[in-house]
Amino acid sequence: MGALAWWGVGAGLLALVAGAFGWGWLRLRRSVAEVTAAIARVGIDDVPRLREECERVLLEKFSERLSLDRLEESARILSRRIDDGSLKSAFAKDDFWWYFVLPVGAYVGELLRVNAGGEWKDSDGGGLELVVSAGDDHATTFPFDKVLKQATVGDKGDLYAYLVTAQKVGELLQN
Question: Which whole number is the average pLDDT over 73-91?
Fold first, then answer.
């Protein structure tokens, strides 16, 4: 095969790789847009059902028991499962691969509500935020968005650090 043929093969392979990358990027953007819209539809009344679903699925699929009373242990479990990617398939629905963000986000928020004295509130942008208040001071966090960010671009262990740090902030605001 001549040099021109090798150039053609190389260009074809490059086009194939670029096409696959582009398709994957578009699919990820579409999926993130879908889960972002779903997050915006979550209401305060949905949280208990989603939290219970998270507890049930972790127990059924992984034999791991979450507890709102054991923040660090539950944070380690959730952080490890997000980091290894196993939550996507454990919660996946045929029409919504990223569904896990909803029950896990609810559980993360409930951990903070119980352990840092937070309160769920409707967010101006849609969906929910969790506010930890003390007098005139407060801290606001978005647990569903944190789970999505962790699953897409987060470093290993970030969710654990986020939960433990948020608990400490809540303790500081309450003292």
Answer: 93
Rounded to 10°, the helix 47-62/71-83 angle is 70
- What pTM did the predictor assign? 0.82
Beta strand pairing status for 118-122 and 137-141? unpaired
Task: Find, among 67, 57, 38, the residue nearest to 128 by Cα.
Answer: 38
Q: Residue 2 corresponds to which tokens in the numbers above?
A: 């001549």
Cβ-Cβ contacts under 8 Å for 57 (sequence gap 6 or more): 90, 91, 103
Element (H, E) at 123: none
Amino acid at 70: R
Residue numbers of the domain that contains 29: 3-174
Which stretch of DSSP H or E encloses residue 137? strand 137-141
Report the amino acid identity of residue 38. Answer: A
pLDDT tens for residues 20-52? 445 444 455 566 688 888 999 999 999 999 999
Give the Cα separation of 107 and 111 in Å (integer): 6
Residue ranges of alpha helices (H) inside the chain are 3-41, 47-62, 71-83, 86-91, 101-116, 143-153, 158-174
Span 105-130, mean pLDDT?
Answer: 93
